[in-house]
Amino acid sequence: MLLEVANLCVSYGAVTAVSGVSLGVREGSIATVLGANGAGKSSLLRAIMGLTPATGEVRFAGEAISRWPAARRVAAGIAMVPEGRRILVSLTVEENLLMGAYPRHDRQIAADLDNIYDLFPNLARRRHAPGSVLSGGEQQMLAIGRAMMARPKLLLMDEPSLGLSPLFVREVFQLIRRMNADGLSILLVEQNTRLALQTAADGYVLRLGACVAAADTATLARSDDLMHAYLGGAHAAPTVHGP
Asked: What's the family (predicted)?
């Protein structure tokens, strides 16, 4: 496993957002985390990234990183595309992209920037324009490009289809598959269950902060319990286990 998470817990005061979640991302694969609003998905990603205090164990490439600050996790090869894009709208497209390369000290930054522009021609055309003029889909592309400028081994993606038109949703998921085919491992949080299950190999379902199902995505797609958990039904928790 490239990423191993064991018994992760996140609390905000008296509120428990993530309760004892364990999951893994195999090297070169895509894993997805599903669940309704408030299930704890974003808190889980933020804890893995080191952006919010948590208990439990996080291991990356065989190393225990639970005590590492976020900057060290980025340097080790983890990057995140946050929910809502969170680009710096007062900076230009190129300045936003270069922010992603901030931890790097190698000579390949210019070449990687050119690669991002090849991947996203719209960004190339607007490289000197402020982020504020981009459409929602273009901002999402910019957020992905910014994360890729860190040269990650593992990319955490939080609701990449949120607020996008169907056309841009298709483009984003085509990009996710392309990045994975190029060897990038991805942990995908996504409310579009159908697309997430079609894209990922392994899946985890959260409900009220707890993992209630874990299996390969083909198994989850056939499980009635998945829909009960995803929709927050009153039925018993799923009993699907693996992978």
From this structure: Belongs to the ABC transporter superfamily.
